[in-house]
Automatic annotation (TrEMBL):
It comes from Gordoniibacillus kamchatkensis. One of its GO terms (molecular function) is ATP binding. PROSITE patterns: ABC_TRANSPORTER_1 (PS00211), ABC_TRANSPORTER_2 (PS50893). It comes from the Bacteria. This is Molybdenum ABC transporter ATP-binding protein. The keyword Transport applies. The lineage of its organism: Bacteria, Bacillati, Bacillota, Bacilli, Bacillales. PANTHER family: METAL TRANSPORT SYSTEM ATP-BINDING PROTEIN TM_0124-RELATED (PTHR42734).
Length: 255
């Protein structure tokens, strides 16, 4: 499904990723953890085909990057990130922004097909945002924006969903609602999920695997209970901590 083999990424004579080997199978839900600058977003951008490795290979959905039409492949990948949000037009009504997700367009310059409109409205209903459907995107709160991005990413019924810190800037209530929506809309079925966060407690039960990065190197990758150990987390974050599992969710206590 997603395979990074011996990936190195060098920019301006700096090694940003070093010998990354990561194999994500269909239906697995992975969380990528690591300190600021450890290379998480670079990996996500590589899986989206926005960066190419300096050496090694990236295969997504059975296609090797470098030999495939990325525009076509990207329709099977939903991507939520702040940088994508910034490219959208703040004056556009919410339902239109969601509808553009069906085509991987940033904006419609022609009449929007009824089918796309109906689907966008349905997705907005599923995340309880129908009341905002005609409001301009730029007027939404942080929490509403994140959920609109989630709905947009699901328009094309992607096989792979990539979320880069979808809960950043959300209060506790909004964060829990967002996590609930992520679980409801992408937790079932065979969708493969890759999720980046700085907050260990966001690893809700739907997540199956964790990869830990330290300065561009993977120090652990596998089933979450094997990777989320105090020893490995101390190595990744350089902070001694204890981990408590509550309702299949890890909570970190700094010692
Ligand atoms: N095009 C580039 N040229 C030079 N350095 C780059 C480039 N892209 C990324 N980097 C560097 O690579 C490192 C990893 O960046 P990346 O954004 O992947 O980290 P991250 O783990 O997502 O960090 P954060 O948690 O702070 O978002 C950073 O030190 C960044 O400055």
């Amino acid at each position: 499904m997603i395979k990074l083999s011996n990936v190195n990424f060098i920019r301006e004579s700096r090694t940003i990723l070093q010998n990354i080997n990561l194999h994500i199978r269909e239906g697995e839900h992975w969380v990528l953890l690591g300190r600021n600058g450890s290379g998480k977003t670079t990996i996500l951008e590589m899986v989206n085909g926005y960066h190419f490795p300096s050496s090694g290979s990236v295969d997504v959905l059975g296609h090797r990057y470098g030999t495939v039409d990325l525009r076509e492949l990207r329709r099977s990948i939903g991507y939520i990130s702040q940088s994508l949000f910034e490219k959208l037009s703040p004056a556009d009504p919410v339902w239109e922004v969601v509808a553009t997700g069906a085509y991987a367009f940033l904006r419609f310059y022609q009449t929007i097909p009824d089918e796309a409109r109906e689907k966008a409205l349905e997705l907005l209903g599923r995340i309880q945002l129908s009341h905002l459907q005609n409001q301009p995107l730029g007027t939404l709160s942080q929490g509403e924006r994140k959920k609109v991005m989630l709905a947009r990413s699901l328009m094309s019924e992607p096989k792979v969903l990539i979320l880069d810190e979808p809960c950043s800037g959300l209060d506790l209530y909004e964060r829990e609602r967002m996590l609930q929506s992520v679980q409801e809309l992408s937790g079932g079925g065979n969708m493969t999920v890759l999720y980046v966060t700085h907050h260990i407690e966001e690893i809700v039960p739907m997540f199956t695997h964790v990869a830990l990065l330290e300065q561009g190197e993977l120090i652990a990758a596998g089933p979450k209970r094997e990777v989320l150990t105090p020893e490995l987390l101390k190595r990744a974050y350089d902070v001694p901590l204890e981990l408590e599992w509550f309702r299949d969710r890890p909570w970190a206590k700094v010692l």
